[in-house]
């Protein structure tokens, strides 16, 4: 260590709040602030959750979307972003953007894809560069306990590179990414809600992922001219370790995934059960399928060693294709015929039904899970007998949400509408009741809706308050911004007898699915724990360490200064810069940017991040704070000197 470590930073008691901290700084005066603020401590408790005292008051008059200044939204909305590769957090009903969570994309504000820690999560090549810098997120779903969200994790897919990521809900940051083997176009995913065998395990333990594209297995350059030999795999990932547990080969192209509340079944709606390789072939059959996976049987077969592997992957693979599962009593899968080229499968909050939408059929198919269980037990002659309703609801039905009151809400892409219909009435109609009134109401949306999702609608606590319609085109809804328009997220009040469109929210292209979660479920951290970071820099370890041409710069920050005013290295050095934020003030984040070296990241209170780079050009460079932190924010910098 050299003498530069002597610029240590106080690490005392928790400070009260950012507002109080900045107020103290102003009182001390600018001349002495740089010294005095380092010792400025709280005179009260800690910052708690950061909610104002007004937060307990009603956020808004129900039936609208306005949330008054100083008030909080009732819900969080977690949505995908499409080819932006991130997840997004909105407040509902206001529609205010709260955060963009980088996942599969690089983000120079937080340093995602720049810091060593984020690169380790994203995955790198042998030379240390990122393996992928692009992504395509479609679906976000939360982890469960007792049939509702537990506020622990979010899971999101990358269709482009067949990856699944996990986001911690306490920090709203990605902590794991897994690439699935032998899979292309991983589109739908969904966590389980409890263990399929052990009922005492009533929380999420697995994440199920459906692959959309058929590829050669293994995809190693063979069988390129014979798509008839290609296949698709359904994948099970451990929620806790994010390791791939097993895969199941299927017929057809998988779209979305749903799971049962009792843990027994996962399912994916399938188009192209014809297993064709061209558009015409994919639309030849009159019906496609919703394929159900008997999780207990699959895992018993894997445990018994009755599996194969593909290529260099060691993941167990079982055969779930129709031809290999003719006997229901031993079958791993059940293919329930549904409307042509279905798009979407969703579980009703009462745990009884899965609903598939036809897309090329104007119908929604209601599947009774009890009858699926009967088929696996050999009590049904045909899997089609599990269908208990198939109402005609409109043109281009895609996705279905629920209100917990027996009603379903399906997006109609071609009609540019949301249709509200009653599940029990649809079942009665299917049984022959000609007086059954299935369709309750249709509401115009603008325009051509894709996904829709309701407040708490994919849990047993569906509350029937709001429905969000994600529309693929906006056209005349907003100011034009060139050839590519913003998309429209429209908020619909479904609490009354009639649906009411209450707000248009803009959305940067191209979000897909999402969930709306009560704010009480989400328990966020405001400050990290420094000891959670093994490489945290303290007064004892701060400084510059050299080992040959490898230099480790260990730096601390506390507003408004870094612990070393001058840092010297030599041209050609491999430099690792580790920065720990020693502030304990809620929201007092520091940035670290180094001009001409492509380095830019932030560290939150008590957090540590690091970057590694080659000092390949000489000169004087100001390492500076990018995130406003103090009245002397602009003065917060160090001289980074690279000797020729």
TrEMBL record:
Residues 512-644 form the Cytochrome oxidase subunit II copper A binding domain. GO terms for biological process: denitrification pathway. InterPro entries: CcO_II-like_C, Cupredoxin, N2O_reductase_N, NO_Rdtase, Nos_propeller, NOS_propeller_2, NosZ/Cyto_c_oxidase_sub2, TAT_signal. It is an enzyme of class 1 (oxidoreductase). Its EC number is 1.7.2.4. It comes from Pseudoduganella aquatica. Keywords: Calcium, Copper, Metal-binding, Oxidoreductase, Periplasm, Signal. In the C-terminal section; belongs to the cytochrome c oxidase subunit 2 family. GO terms for molecular function: calcium ion binding; copper ion binding; cytochrome-c oxidase activity; nitrous-oxide reductase activity. It holds the Pfam family nos_propeller_2. The keyword Heme does not apply. It comes from the Bacteria. One of its GO terms (cellular component) is periplasmic space. Its main location: periplasm. It catalyses: N2 + 2 Fe(III)-[cytochrome c] + H2O = nitrous oxide + 2 Fe(II)-[cytochrome c] + 2 H(+). SUPFAM superfamilies: Cupredoxins, Nitrous oxide reductase, N-terminal domain. Its cofactor is Cu cation; Ca(2+). The keyword Oxidoreductase applies. This is Nitrous-oxide reductase. It is found in: Periplasm. Pathway: Nitrogen metabolism; nitrate reduction (denitrification); dinitrogen from nitrate: step 4/4. Nitrous-oxide reductase is part of a bacterial respiratory system which is activated under anaerobic conditions in the presence of nitrate or nitrous oxide. Homodimer.
């Amino acid at each position: 260590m050299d003498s530069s470590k002597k610029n240590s930073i106080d690490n005392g008691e928790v400070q009260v709040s950012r507002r109080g901290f900045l107020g103290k700084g102003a009182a001390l005066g600018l001349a002495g602030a740089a010294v005095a603020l380092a010792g400025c401590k709280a005179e009260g408790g800690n910052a708690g959750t950061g909610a104002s005292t007004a937060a307990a008051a009603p956020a808004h008059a129900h039936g609208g979307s306005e949330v008054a200044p100083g008030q909080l939204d009732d819900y969080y909305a977690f949505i995908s972003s499409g080819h932006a590769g991130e997840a997004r957090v909105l407040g509902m009903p206001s529609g205010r953007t709260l955060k963009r969570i980088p996942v599969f994309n690089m983000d120079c504000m937080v340093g995602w894809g720049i810091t060593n820690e984020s690169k380790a999560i994203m995955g790198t090549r042998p030379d240390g560069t990122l393996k992928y810098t692009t992504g395509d997120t479609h679906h976000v779903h939360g982890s469960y306990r007792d049939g509702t969200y537990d506020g622990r994790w979010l899971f999101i897919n990358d269709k482009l590179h067949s990856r699944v990521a996990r986001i911690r809900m306490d920090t709203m940051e990605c902590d794991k990414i897994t690439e699935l083997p032998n899979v292309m176009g991983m589109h739908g995913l969904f966590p389980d809600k409890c263990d399929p065998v052990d009922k005492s395990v009533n929380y999420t333990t697995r994440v199920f992922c459906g692959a959309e594209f058929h590829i050669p297995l293994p995809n190693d350059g063979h069988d390129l001219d014979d798509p008839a030999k290609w296949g698709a795999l359904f994948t099970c990932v451990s929620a806790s370790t994010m390791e791939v547990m097993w895969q199941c080969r299927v017929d057809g192209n998988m779209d979305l995934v749903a799971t049962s509340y009792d843990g027994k079944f996962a399912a994916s709606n399938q188009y192209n059960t014809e297993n064709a390789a061209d558009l015409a072939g994919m639309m030849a059959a009159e019906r496609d399928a919703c394929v159900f996976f008997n999780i207990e049987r699959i895992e018993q077969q894997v445990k018994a060693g009755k599996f194969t592997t593909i290529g260099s992957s060691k993941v167990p693979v079982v055969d779930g294709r129709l031809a290999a599962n003719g006997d229901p009593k031993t079958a791993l899968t059940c293919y329930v015929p549904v409307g042509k080229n279905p798009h979407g499968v969703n579980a009703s909050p009462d745990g009884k039904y899965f609903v598939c939408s036809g897309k090329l059929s104007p119908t929604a198919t209601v599947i009774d899970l009890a009858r699926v269980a009967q088929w696996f037990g050999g009590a049904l002659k045909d899997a089609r007998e599990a269908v208990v309703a198939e109402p005609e609801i409109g043109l281009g039905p895609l996705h279905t949400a629920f209100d917990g009151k027996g009603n379903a809400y399906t997006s109609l892409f071609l009609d540019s509408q949301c249709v509200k219909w009653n599940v029990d009435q649809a079942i009665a109609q299917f049984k022959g009741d000609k007086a059954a009134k299935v369709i309750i109401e249709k509401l115009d949306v603008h325009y051509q809706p894709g996904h829709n999702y309701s407040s708490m609608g994919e849990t047993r606590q569906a509350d029937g308050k709001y429905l969000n319609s994600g529309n693929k085109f906006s056209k005349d809804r907003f100011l034009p911004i060139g050839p590519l328009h913003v998309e429209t997220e429209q908020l619909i009040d479904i609490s009354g007898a009639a649906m009411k469109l209450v707000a248009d929210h803009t959305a940067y292209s191209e979000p897909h699915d999402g969930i709306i979660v009560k704010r009480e479920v989400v328990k966020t951290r405001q400050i990290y724990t420094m000891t959670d970071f093994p490489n945290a820099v303290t007064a004892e370890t701060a400084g510059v360490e050299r080992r040959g041409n490898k230099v480790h710069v260990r730096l601390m920050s506390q507003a408004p200064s870094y612990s070393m005013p001058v840092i010297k290295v030599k041209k050609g050095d491999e430099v690792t810069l580790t920065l720990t934020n020693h502030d304990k003030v809620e929201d007092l984040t520091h940035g670290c940017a180094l001009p001409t070296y492509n380095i830019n990241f932030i560290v939150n209170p008590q957090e540590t991040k690091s970057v590694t780079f080659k000092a390949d050009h000489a000169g004087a460079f100001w390492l500076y704070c990018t995130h406003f932190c103090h009245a002397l924010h602009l003065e917060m910098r160090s001289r980074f000197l690279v000797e020729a």
